[in-house]
Amino acid sequence: MFVTLLKFAENRSAVGEFMAGHNEWIAKGFADGVFLSVGSLELGGGAVIAHGESREAHDARIAADPFVEHGVVSVETYEIDPKRTVPALEFTMAG
Fold first, then answer.
1. Which of 16, 21, 23, 73 has the most neighbouring CB atoms within 10 Å?
2. How far apart are CA 69 and CA 60, in angstroms?
3. Number of helices and strands (H, E) in the chain?
4. pLDDT tens for each residue of 36-81
């Protein structure tokens, strides 16, 4: 499982220009069954919780976000190996 933080970067003023493409990118992540949750960071930017693909595939998916491609946000991704979850998220645990 991955938690990716998308923090506003130097080209943040272009957010409006790339918002439609960013929203399409989010919709595709959900349609592909990879995104579990997306939302805004309190201090600006956003976060994605994802599951079901390799680190390489996840990094490629994140890189395809128009916000990332155009320097609107910078990216930090953390990989999590869940050991305990609520029943609704048991599918995220390995094995």
1. 73
2. 11
3. 3, 4
4. 999 999 988 999 999 999 999 999 999 999 999 999 999 999 999 9
> Would you tell me how many other CB atoms lie within 10 Å of the CB of residue 61?
21
User: Which residues lie below 8 Å from residue 89, measured CB to CB, with a gap of 6+?
Assistant: 36, 82
Residue found under tokens 């693909």: 53
Cα angle at 34 between 26 and 27, to 5 degrees?
20
Residues β-bridged to residue 38: 48
Q: Is the pLDDT of residue 94 over 90?
A: no
Beta pairing partners, 3? 49, 78
Rounded Cα distance, 49 and 38, in Å: 6
